[in-house]
Task: structure prediction
Amino acid sequence: MGRTSNKDAKSAFEDYFKRATSPMMTLLLLNEKPMYVYNLSQELEKRSNSTYKMNFLYPVLYRLQQQGYVREYSQEITESHRTRNYYSITDEGKEYLKFMLKKYRELLNAVDTVIENGITPDTDSLEKD
Result:
């Protein structure tokens, strides 16, 4: 098995993080108002100062829909009957979002505690990168 380059490893970390948090981020935005896919991705990118871009939003939405956390509906957007698919959060999705936010904060605090307790004079410079 080949070795992974540092660039690939850094990209993999970001990809895994986004994959793990994308359902939560999606539900957070849908909790504010129903949105269509392009609007979701643009809003997420805007609010994160272009740091958090999701190129795989459809699979996330389909999975959330299968789990009963999101529903899809079509809405006419022009007089010529052009429609757009919108997604909205369900009551079950709101409960799941509360659970995810609580777990996320718990895990984030635990990771921060481990990092803070692991900082020594040798590793102090890791924080500055």
